[in-house]
Structures are given as structure tokens and as C-alpha cells.
Amino acid sequence: MDGAFFLVSKLVWGLLRPNTLALALAVLGLVLVWRGRRFGRWPLTLGLGWYAAVFCLPVAALLTLPLENRFPRPATAPPFVTGIIVLGGAVEQRMTAARGIPALNGAAERMTEGMALALRYPEARLVFTGGTAALDQSGPTEAETARLLFTQLGLPANRLLLENESRNTHENAVFTHRLLNPQPGETWLLVTSASHMPRSVGVFRAAGWRVVPWPVNYTTGDDPALWWDNPFPTRLNQAEWALREWVGLTVYWLTGRTGAWFPGP
Question: What pLDDT is stored for residue 227 in this prediction?
């Protein structure tokens, strides 16, 4: 069942991701209008309208802010931490394999913050969870890149634990819970992008785990001046990522992978 869910989710999102769909609609509409089909104006307007809205309006920020503000960092850091869980999604495992050095993407703060917390809490274990999210599962895993990065940064091997089979956020939670078997009274920090935190907390709760959210990788702020800082291509990617999270929250809730549509503190 989980295999079918993974396959369908990858295929559907690949076809319907907003930026790609908008471009396809615009091209389709343009061809239809050029051939004299008046109804082609509708897909043309819808496709170009998405790009125009993201360009002229703070669409990306308004979609992202509720996600990033949902779980603030604890006002006071815990005095003792059992372990630090870093979710995958910040490493580029194929580029790492191609070049031989750890390659990170725009969510790199997941990794740097995980290492900073490991230094702050020297008794805590650092746990990285991530296999590969690609349809082709034969390639290198994110966990392999994480091992290379953390050990090169000086983390002792006996403090690092890797979960290398998960393909999505639901499996991150389920497989890591199974691996660690957390006990009552333990404190586990969950490190992931702020916009990804609501869905992540939801699936960890559904797996029976009350983690402490530790969000990173903020992409916007409450000050409207920040809403226009990023160039247009970055705002397109930000808007698409936020929509992906909203869709993911809805699908996870409808399929029972979270207990609430929009998990909160």
C-alpha cells in the first residue's frame, strides 16, 4: 500500500506541479488561439495568470507564511536532549556521488542546524532519516551523503544513526520510530524546514511520537518588505513548494497519515 501511495504521489505531482501545469496550459492555449479556437483563451489565461500572479502579488509569501509560523521555536531550549532528528531533503545524493564531496541544496540549514545542535548537546545522538525520493530506487541514498557530511564535520561515528529506507515524510516518521523505539520522558528534537514542519509533526504524532519542533530554513517573514526580496524564479519555486505542502497536508489527512489537516502546537 505504501509503495502504491509513493508511486502515485510522485506521478501525479510530476504532472500537476503548478509551474509545469501553468506552462503547459499557456502553450496549449496559445496553439488553440493561433488555430482560431476561441476557447483557447481560457487555458492561455489560466497559465499566464499563474505567472502574472506570482510576479505581481505576494503569492509565494502568503502561501508560505502560515506554514512557517505554525510552529515557532521553543522560547527556552530544553536542558537535556535525548536525540536530534534531521529529516532528509537537504542533500543532493547523485551530485555527491558524481563529485565525491557532500552536495547540499536550498534546505541546507537542516544539516547545519543538526550539527550545531549536536555540538550544543554532546550527549545527544544525531539521527538522519532519508533514503531516496526518486522513482529509481537503485541510486545512492540521502543517508550516505549525510554520513559523509557529518563525519567530515567531525561528528564521532558512534553518535550518528542513519535511517536509509524512507521515501517520504510518512516513512521518515514510521521507520525512525521503529528504529529508535523512543521511551516516555525522552526529548527528541525534530529539525526540518519551517514550511515542512506542520506535516512533519503531524506524521510523527500519528506514529506515536511527541517530538519537539525545531524549524529552520525560513524563506519569508512577517515584514512585507521581505516578500519582494527574492527574484521572480525563486518566488515561483517558493510558491510551488508551499502549494506542495498544502496538498501534502490534505492528502496525508485524507489518507489517515496525520490526525489533523493542519497540525498545530
Answer: 84
